[in-house]
Amino acid sequence: MVADPILYVALPLLTAFLLPIIGKINKELIRIVPGLLFAFLVYNSIALFSKVSATHTPIIVEIAGWAPPIGINLVYSSFTGFIATIISVLALLVWAYSYKFKKLEFDNSLKYFVLLMLVTAGSIGVILTGDLFNQFVFLEIVALSSYPLVAFYRGRNGAEASFKYLLVGGFASLSILLGIVLIYSQLGTLNMADIAAHIDEMPRNIKIVSFTLLFLGFAIEAEMFPLNGWAPDTYSQAPGPIGAVFAGMTAKAGIYALIRMIYTIFDFSGAFEILLIMGVITLVVSEGIALRQENLKRMLAYSSLGQMGLLMIAFGINTKTAVIAGMLILFNHAVIKSLLFLSSSFLVYNSKDKLIKDAYGMGKKLPLTAILFGIGAFAIVGLPPFSGFWGKLYLLMASADANLLGLIALILAVSVIEIVYYFRVVNGVYFKKSKTEIEVHKPRWNASLAMIILAAAIIVVGIYPNIIYDYLVNAADTLLDKASYISHVLPNLASN
Amino acid sequence: MSNIIIILAIFGWAILTYIAFRLNKTLGNIFVGLIAVALPVYYFTYVPEDYSFQVMGLTLQFGFTSFSSLFAILVVILGALTLLYSIPYMNKKDRLGWFYLNFLFSIGGMLGILMSKDFVSLFIFWEIMTWSSYLIVIFSGKKVNKVGVKYMVYSAIGAYAMLMAIVLINKWSGTTNISHFFETFADYSNGAKILSSLLLLTAFAVKSALMPLHVWAPNAYTNSPMSYTSLFSGALSKMGIYGMALVAIMLYTNTGMKFFGEALAWLGAITAVLATFWAVFQTDIRKLLAYSSIGQLGYIAVGLGIGTELGVMAALFLALLHGLFKGILFMAAGAIEYRTGKTDFSELRGLIWKMPVTFFSALVAIIALAGMPPLSGLISKWLIYEALLSSEHYFLIILIFLSSTAAFLYCFHFLYGVFLGQREDDIEDVKEAPALMLVPMVLMSFGLLALGTFPGLIFKHISSSMSYLGFNDVTWEMSVLTNEWGNKIYLTHLNTMFMVVFAVFFVIITLVARKKTRRVGTKDIANAGEPILAEDNYHFSQDFYKPFWRVISPVMKYRIETFYNSFANGIGEFFQFFRRVYTGNGQTYALYVVIFLTILFIVGATLI
Amino acid sequence: MDIWKLLLTGSVTTVLAFVVGMLYMGLRRKITARVQNRVGPPIYQNFLDVMKLWSKKSSINHGFMQHVAPLWMIATSITTLMFIPILNNGSTFFTNLTFEGDLIMLLYLMVVGSLGMALGAGQTGNPNSAIGVTRGLTQMVGFEIPWVMALVALMIQHRTTTVAGLLDVQVQSGTWLMLSSPFAFIAALLAIPGMFRYSPFDIVGAPAELASGPISEFGGKYLGTMMTNGAIFAFVKLTLFVDIFMGGASNLGFLLLKTFALYMFPVLWGLVSPRFRTEQAVRFFWGWPVFFGVLGLIQAAI
Amino acid sequence: MTEELMQQILKISFYGASLALILIGLYGVLTKKNLIKILLSMAIAESGLNLLFVAIGYIMNGTAPIFSTAVLDENNQLLETVTMVDPIPQALVLTAIVIGLGVTAVGLALVIRLYKHHNTINIDEIRNLKW
After folding, report:
1. Which domain range does residue B388 map to?
2. CA angle at residue B235 from B233 to B240, to 5 degrees?
3. Dihedrals φ, ψ of C91, to 5°?
4. Which of C2, C13, C79 is most worth mutating to test chain B (most B CB atoms within 10 A of its CB)?
5. How do residues D29-74 score in pLDDT, each as one tens digit?
């Protein structure tokens, strides 16, 4: 079978548009075809990623035969491939999970899967593309398909959340577009490598303005405080699996765009400090606010924001160890937070307000889901032998290397807060009596399987992290080596 | 290789046990019994080997040192006995598989800690031990948040202090190897020395419930099943002592930072005094024992803090001994709970008639705890006092003495309140605990008796482990104790004397007027001429040490716990206020974006 | 160690302690009576009492712990006695086990009897007994502190923990420790009444409140044993104190003189003082005695 | 000279107009309480942005960026250079317009949903999700 980065984007988009037609043939195909697609994406990832890992050179695809900087290109390197692989695996699991999810309520699987495919394609596109405007377009695809997903259920406040997202997301797109316009006006190119190679030709003022605008736009997508007001609402109102999608895909796309911009495109060393400081603020504020949440999904959302803060810290420190830590946290966040969102959806399946109280007593009624949620909670607070621990350890080691003692203490203090609110929930799930009589909904085997795979990944990576360590190191090397990125994308530039 | 295998085998067996309990309770119990037997057998027969491997670019190393194997003995023996004890004790409960899973995980975690030769694996096993013990603390499902989360939070504070120390050490010395850290510690800058050692000390102090980090302990000890609390207080808290010994001796005593050792000793002494005072006023036997544990751990900290040869010897001896006698006492409390379902002094009385074996085990343990001859407690106390005397700690010794004198109060309270006093009809149905619960208690009682006269049995191990800490050729004799001034006590003579006189008088007093000795009930007492009615009970259980309370209540009203609670609440309230940032109005969020952009422009103008 | 010699000297010492203790207690009753303007019993009255108790045919027993409590106490007292030097001249006759233990051990050994007593009293089921025991233990926490402070001061100053060592110090320097370490002596002296539990520290027995407290359920042979023990233990305490602070004695005459002089201190104090409440007693001991104890420690430190 | 001046003035007026549009849009988004007005303000800001983008690529007297007839000499050299506006901004703006349209459409759909759910389109009253 063929494996090509372009398929990541092309196939889901194509399938998304064909799906209504396929649906006419057989209703069941609406559910099956996306699964086949995602399975193919996973295959695609594995094939490409193993190739990239073996050769240590990125695969660069020039779309429509135009070589960069004129044409649009996709860059599949150890770094982007790692994230793309996570996203495609996650997409497959989310598909498996949401196969017939809430089917009884109303059957809207066509919309759902179309949107899911669009989000996946958009997220992977953001990560793979080597063109700034193209990245903007993919981000907009992500955003545009996220808005309806958030407002998917009629009965909830989804529309409200979606509208807030749209409002802030509108700012993001304005800001990004403006930044792109400024860069284009000065350099006349939109290719990232090309911009990076010529960035010092830009007047300083315009460089700063465009940097600021791009930073703002991507920071909104990356859920940086205080730009993340929309995020808790969307996480809590979207359908259960979509929470996992947001945590594992769209937020990843946002943070990727942010770090790609800071690491590769611009050459501001102060940008790392901004990222670091904003990460710290995001972390502390979000985890602190999560402390007294009554809504389970909202609590998870704030916790997710906190993890994004950790990611920003990791990438803000800007050393190799820190980037490895960042990749690990990115992996953990994608896997663990997805598991938490997926399992918590069943804990509060039939509850209207998704309150933590409603999950009480589910330990007996939904033993498997509860234990999976428990594993997720243990992992996210960083207890060994779960994978969350290694991320935290590496981040701390990176902070220590950078002489940031206060940061270490702060991260650890925040972890204590995390323990408090997560363990309260887990305890409640197992030991508190359920007060209201809420009908439980047992996960189907496909949903269980998706969650078990995630949990298994957490445990396996936790016990034996060496299996991903080499990939992480490669990814970190790739991200940090700006020159080789440019030279790989623009082989002619060096000779000129 | 064999080192890490034993840990993995325990973890694997834990999971197998879990599965076995899901299939069949008897099968599960057989699995538990097997590991209980296999653990000591394997431990005492295998040949240790070092092993190391790479994880995430870090080197993890395993292998027992002469020092850690001392604690491993305690863990293995106490672990095996508590497992045996658990079989009947937990038999009526649900979710047994879950219980034993965590039980075995915490044993494996403890052995892993002792086996770790580098900080990262130490931390990993430390955390495994912590969460598995946490899961047992909340096993009963009662007070899960108030007690369980509190335990987890304090443990996390400790563990994270350790983690911070680890990453700093890794940065400073480029490796996380423990012995390398100790060897190069002298080269560190002063700030690094103080910071790293204090962080490590905090971590270990939490586990060993040193004040002011003890807050979790009484409730956590009380809340977990007694069969586990035996291990919890007896062995698990000793992991803190293990680390504390390393820090206190390797870092403070051996590198001339005596001041911190002194501070540790003072903290230990204050812990001993205050915890003992609190133990005196407890009305629940489990809490009494829990506070008593804290106090005893304080003694150990004193011994480690002063860091002289005798002091360390005393601390290590007491650490092992405490495992034994507190093990017995918690088991006894468990047996009482098992048979009567009660643990409050106001509901218990007169059980000596019904549970004599439990009583005598508890009596032996209490005598050892109080430090009286002819049992081994005397030796630990003696060593501590001699250590303090010869290192001229005038006031510390007074504090310790105050604490151990006050300990008599709760010792009597425990024995009297539960086993003695006026019998009542409600205990008529109570039976002696099952044999499998008695066996561990009795075995450990014999251990205490033997050590009371022949402490050399343990001194042998202690002296070899102290060579690891830098005390070479520690002198010891089988049953003679010698202090630094050459004063000796001959335990054989003392104990023989006592027992012979006791035996002689026992014969005399039993034989004299044997036939005319009337055995009467406890309601047949001198009561100003008034007979006690059947429905009355004059058992003394309320306000047991009221006068003493009146004396020391001015001190006792200051509780660090209230301070911690208000601090935690303050944090919660602060963020509660902060939540209002998220107003729920989309326009406000848009406004934030604009404000952020403005700030970013201002900051951005300074970018290079 | 020659067992037979120990048996002989030990027995003699025990008998000596018993007789002296009994006589002192008789004297106390006599003196008390005289001060209160009564005739009082003859000083040998206590011997008669013990004989009567031992020869009583019947006794009440509530259980095993009550059975062993008295002999627990007497075993403690006799064992303790064996470890205390009676004379300071190195006489081999009264050596017993003197050189095989030290003060710290003695401190602990001396409370073993109290534990036995407490358990025995506890088993009788009489609430007065238990109350008495709690009071006794509380009071013990009080007086042990100044007492130990004094001992610690001496032990550290003279770098020995044995009674024999402290005796040697006094013999060689020719000065009693009560003169060279006056503060420690005062602290210890003030603790003595607490040990003897005479008024104002008779809160354990407290005849009017507790009906003689812990011993209220003991009779016959049990009470006889306890009285015997009381006599021996009184001698033990006095001799120990004399050994430590008053230079010991080179012959039995001096020993009697010094111990009697010391014994009069709690007795005479008791005659003129009403009973403290428990907390008052503890507060008393933690007041001036501790103050002097601290002074003693400071003196030793300097 | 005058042509260059003209070009400058034109550019500046283009820039000014687009900036004004963006600011108007921002003002509307931040102050208007009506959801539809907010959406419209966003659309205004976006068109301002698009205008800016096109203006950057604009060259005075340039033709549309379409290769129609190239006048070549026998050596295949261009005889006459045709001034074309930069094609890329136009292409990109086209995309941006489409995206903006999509956003507006979704937004309006959401407004309908919100109106059904809350019976109001005042943004201050739609605050079920907070804190």
Report:
1. 257-516
2. 85
3. -60, 125
4. C79
5. 888 888 899 999 999 998 898 888 888 777 666 666 666 555 666 6
Report residue B603 as tokens: 């900051």
Domains of chain D by residue range: 2-65+78-125
Q: Which CATH class is domain D2-65+78-125?
A: mainly alpha
Model confidence, pTM:
0.91
Long-range Cβ pairs for the range D50-53 (8 Å, 24+): D50/D93, D50/D96, D50/D97, D50/D100, D51/D14, D51/D17, D51/D18, D51/D21, D52/A178, D52/A181, D52/D14, D52/D15, D52/D18, D52/D19, D52/D22, D53/A177, D53/A181, D53/A184, D53/D89, D53/D92, D53/D93, D53/D96
- The answer to whether B595 faces chain D, any CB pair under 8 Å, is no
- Cα separation of B6 and B109, whole Å? 11
Share of chain B above pLDDT 70, in %: 99
What are the tens digits of pLDDT across the range D63-105? 666 665 556 666 766 666 666 677 778 888 888 899 889 999 9
Separation of alpha carbons A166 and A178, rounded Å: 18
Q: Is residue B486 part of a domain?
A: yes
Question: Cα(A192)–Cα(A126) distance, rounded to whole angstroms?
Answer: 12
Closest to C80 measured CA to CA, from C116, C107, C99 = C107
Q: How far apart are the first and last CA of chain B?
A: 54
- What SS3 state is found at B51? strand
B538 in A contact zone (CB under 8 Å): no
- Our count of domains for chain B comes to 2
Three-point CA angle C125, C65, B494, nearest 5°: 145
Query: Please, which chains are in contact with B (at least 3 CB pairs closer than 8 A)?
Result: A, C, D
| Helix (H/G/I), strand (E/B), else coil: A189 | coil
Q: How confident is the model over B527-572, as pLDDT tens digits?
A: 666 777 777 777 787 888 888 888 888 888 888 888 888 888 898 8
- Asked if C192 contacts C144 with a C-beta cutoff of 8 angstroms, the reply is no
Element (H, E) at C169: helix C163-173
- CB atoms < 10 A from the CB of A138, how many? 23
First to last CA, chain C: 40
Task: Name the residue type at position A336.
Answer: I
Chain D hits for A160, Cβ within 8 Å: 114, 117-118, 126-129
B409-434 burial: b if 16+ Cβ within 10 Å, else e: bbbbbbbbbbbbbbbbeebeebebbb
Interface of chain A toward chain D, CB-CB under 8 angstroms: 133, 137, 140, 143-144, 147-148, 151, 154, 157, 159-164, 166-167, 169-171, 173-174, 177-178, 180-181, 184-185, 188, 190, 232-233, 236-237, 289
The amino acid that residue A103 corresponds to is: K
Rg, C-alpha atoms of chain A: 21
Contact partners for chain C, using 3 or more CB pairs closer than 8 A, are B
Q: Which residues contact B318 (CB under 8 A, 6 or more apart)?
A: B296, B299, B300, B303, B380, B383, B384
Residue B1 reports pLDDT greater than 80: no
Q: For B353, which DSSP code?
A: G
- CA angle A151–A156–A159, rounded 5-degree value: 35
Buried b (16+ CB within 10 A) or exposed e, D73-101: eeeeeeeeeeeebbebbbebbeebeebbe
Given an 8 Å threshold on Cβ–Cβ distance, is B510 in contact with C104?
A: no
- Measured CA to CA in angstroms, residue B118 lies from A96, B182, B192 at distances of 42, 11, 19
Asked whether residue B137 is domain-assigned, the answer is no
The C-alpha of B75 sits at a distance from chain A's nearest C-alpha, in angstroms, of 21
User: What one-character DSSP code corresponds to residue A434?
Assistant: P
Number of domains present in the structure of chain C: 1
Is D56–A181 a contact, with Cβ atoms under 8 angstroms apart?
yes
**Residue B434, in any domain of the structure:** yes
Domain ranges for chain A, please list them.
293-463
